[in-house]
Amino acid sequence: MSQEYKAEEIEYNERLRRRLRILQDKFKAGEVVIAEGLDVERSLDAVRLRPDGEVDLDTVDGLVRSMALAVAEMHDREELKKQASLSEIQNMYFKFIDDNFGTFFKMMTEKGMTPHDMGMVAQNSERSITEVTENLEQFLEVIVQFWDGVGEIAHIHIEDLHHNVKGVFGGDLFPAHDENIASKCGFYTDTIVLPDPFLRSKHIFEYHNLASKAYYLMKHAMNILKYKELACAETEDPIVVILPDLAALQEDEHDFYQHLGREDSLVHSGKLFGRKFESFEELMSFCNSLDSIESVVAEIHDENRVLFDTNWTGDISSQIIKAMKEEYMKPFGEITPGFVLASQAFGRMSVSNEMLIKSSRLNGTPIIDAPTSWQYLVWKMEYDADRAEKTLKSQDLHVVKGLSDLSVGDMQWIGNIPPEALIQIRQEGAMHEIRDILGKGVNELIDANPINFHRSRDKIFENINIAFSQHQKNLDNLSNKKWKFAGKDIGSWLVVGSLEVAAAITGTPVWGMATIAADQILDVPKLKDIPQSIKKLAEENNKVNKSPVGLLFNVHKKSFN
What's the predicted TM-score (pTM) here? Predict the structure, then answer.
């Protein structure tokens, strides 16, 4: 036996003895109870002690070891959570941002400006750029150190909020600067999880010029402070919470999302160009060979798969030219028009994968307020469903998309709620009655068991359509109650826009997450290349029948009162 193997065995035995001690303590405290007749009961009876009082590990079988591991993990999670409450973490975070940018936020509020306006002011002169960015490195270092210390604890707190409708924001660095996403979704979710935008903007702070750095630093700070009141409010469940992206803190997770993004970009580019790509290297070689706008356009098979921004107008040629001039393309140096299309597919698909996995980890649902990101998420679900259909040889897989496609005209929902009113509603316990009146809500839509979808696509559409038709009627009932919160009628918060749901009904839990570890649907990565955190998530999702779902809240600006 090698010294290295022997050392590993000693370490494992020490970890096992610790787990067994925790299991024993939990039994003594009555926190673990075994039902009679189970196999594990016989396994526990077989455990013996050595003369020195330590457990004889040769008498501990796999059932007991698994049980001890599960109990120890639960114990460690609870101990970790005791180090800092979620409220403490959020208050510490917002205090730090407020200490550095509170003066600017007060100025913005008093002058009726937006975070974008403040960002433009920050990059307006050499003096302001220097003032805003002179301590940028130290500021970002504190942010990283803070989340290194309490990020995992914050995640566990949110993961353990069971029976809580969680909306996990994704698809952009942070919600739109000119509105409040909690105002749009606060009646339909219990908790909205927002990302730390400073961590998400790592590439900007590394590669962009000082003016861009000043703009994004100021804009992010102002945008975050808009949510301070909601995140720090004393309510039963947090209305808003800021969490770090684990991929920004853990390199292996970031690499894994990029790997998935490369795989999905092959599928997307295959549909875009009407040809099959065997590898990402082959895709990049092909796209780099398209060194003129004319050559790219000539190769495009499906123009509908070319999407840079839903707000961009003009033909494909002009959009590609515009994309090549975007700030985020500058770090790549000299690029071809084909490279722009390949990088767009890779980047967008990486983000969609991260969004779905993050939401799954937190037992939440992706919430998007950017139609471009929404379309790529829908495509991602479509590609997974197609892949699962071929692998599982099933004809019962669907992608359910677009509530606005089902309804005549625009949807209407409660989506202009003042933050102070949202806090008052939660603190007075009025949300339960409001949800009862609204009837069918987001939870009913996102909790569907994919195994039950052995029905036609039209039937699924019909069920969702009925639910939201009823929701429209219930809105009238709620408005007629003339309730006032923060001095405003609920009826004054109605907005008009598109409220869409996309669900990948794959017949397997969470878009094939359970089969990642089995290396079935996603051709690669191999098992050894999957981060441990993702393996664990896949194992957990194997026990849950849940399909990936996304929600798009897109308000027409003219509808605001």
Answer: 0.80
